[in-house]
Amino acid sequence: MNICIIGTGYVGLVAGTCLADMGNIVICVDNNKNKIKKLENGIIPIYEPGLEDLIKSNVKEGRLRFSTNLNDAVTNSKVCFIAVSTPQDTDGSCDLSAVKSVAEQIAKCLNEYKVIVNKSTVPVGTAEKISEIIKANTQVSFDIVSNPEFLKQGAAVEDFLSPDRIIIGSDSPKATEIMKEIYMPYSQSENKIIFMDVKSAEMTKYVANAFLASKISFINEMANICEKVGADIEKVRLGICADERIGSKFLFPGIGFGGSCFPKDVSALISTAKLNNCESRILEAVKYVNINQRKLFIDKILSYYNYDLKDKTFAIWGLAFKPKTNDMREAPAITVINELLNRGVKIQAYDPQAFDSAKLIFQDKITYTDTSYDALDNANALIIMTEWNEFIRPDFEKIKTSLKDKVIFDGRNLYKHDLMKSFGINYICIGSKFSEGINVDSFKAC
Description:
α9 (198-229) crosses α11. The protein has helices spanning 10-21, 33-40, 51-60, 70-75, 97-109, 126-135, 156-161, 173-182, 198-229, 233-241, 262-275, 281-304, 332-342, 355-362, 396-402, 417-422, and strands at residues 2-6, 25-29, 64-67, 79-82, 114-118, 142-146, 166-170, 193-196, 313-317, 346-350, 367-368, 381-384, 407-410, 426-428. α6 links the parallel β5 (114-118) and β6 (142-146). By secondary structure, it is an alpha/beta fold. The protein is built from 16 helices and 14 strands. 42% of the residues lie in helices and 13% in strands. The strands form two sheets. The chain has an eight-stranded mixed beta sheet, sandwiched between helices.
């Protein structure tokens, strides 16, 4: 089937490439000429395991190409996927300006019946707005479908090609049949494809992300309580996760969630609730706990040094909001580093993939090192912000020798207290009894 993907960001590029790999003829369109030129030259703007090889193989086979010509892409496609950015607006709501603009452009290009699929994350009722815009600009028939993505950064290619579910929201039997054809490779897997009305599909995406975000904020709040009462959140976590009704996914204490989805989707759902005169007390709490978790982590560092960071140098391991990506959108590292910089701290940072993203944010305010161990040179302490695999089993003797103050502040709970004690390293993490050197009474944990 001939398909066009409008928007070559994270969702659009992964979706377009994977749809091409399923045998479709796909044109990925973007108004960013520089980005398209790079893609045509094999330069991939995002880091995602497996994506680069998949793009190159499908381009070689002629199933995938890139263009800035929206008219050509729309007129030569049966299905048009909208995959443009929907960032958080200043009031917390979802900014639909890009989606609306694309809808108007599509309308002016329609030459025959098309299925227009919204893959961008949008609030309930967006399909109706898109339909109104298109109807105002064309007499050609069309149908709107909601097909939200559920891709985890770092595993997006696998998620698309081997999904746990595919949500298709359609109010048109004709459009539904076309979507069935696109996703035919999955139709033999029972319950893989779930059909529903458009509004329910739009809502499903937000509810899924809000629930996962709630699990993260919940375990972080429990971790904070554990610190105050002298319990160990890791032991508590193992105890509750053994319950089949609870499970273990997204129940790892840390410095909170970041990225392009959870923060803005929670805020957008809160905004939707307000617009419809509904309370969203749980979601408000989820958002508050997540933001506060970063502040609490910073306060651990300040408390350890008696709130005096003069002439201190800290090594940072991890800048991306999660491993296996170079994405720093809403990354906790941004909050922590900015606060430390404001207090005159020198930062030496290492991340396997996120340096280009970090340089756009911090410029030359921090030092970027070639290796994780280079970041330790002349540093007082190590701060772990992202759980990259290479950080899980480091050379602790080398860490101890390099750090002036022999202390690790771990925002991802990678290590065990007993192991750190055996190396003579003071270890301060999330949700566990404090090591020597930190004043529990001064720490504002709750």
